[in-house]
Amino acid sequence: MSFSGEISATYRPAATDPELSGPKVDTKFLATGKMTGGDFGLFQWDMRPAAGGPAAHYHKTFSESFYVLDGKVRLFDGANWVTAVKGDYLYVPPNGIHAFRNESDEFASMLILFAPGPPRERYFTELAEIRTSGRQLSDEEFTEFLAGHDQYMV
User: Fold this and answer.
1) For the segment 36-76, what is each residue's pLDDT rounded down to a tens digit?
2) CA 110 to CA 1: how far, in whole Å?
3) How many folded domains does the chain comprise?
């Protein structure tokens, strides 16, 4: 039996502009779920000083991993907050409560890995569109929006 490979790799130069750029965070969609055939999603999350971050939440259908590239990132594992630094890693299985934020006065950067690869970029782009439009969601609308993206606040 003979096997042959295929030309199917995707290259992304480091200088590629972020897909989302805001006052607190720049996000690069390094690999979307669509790009990887649903295997995983990989984003680079660059946070300006005191950027904050999401409150404690969980996802039912995918895991999430965080790998700190630079700076200090506060990571919540559902029980405790830790100050993570370059090279630190947190894995959160499906249904695992977690949160993250940059509370420091320094830039911070991390990789976020979603597996399997849901179309997570839609959550971030839709959230950015809501914020930039000035549209205010009611608590019920926001809860519905989050649930539509498999995100449940604690």
Assistant:
1) 999 999 999 999 999 999 999 999 999 999 999 999 999 99
2) 43
3) 1
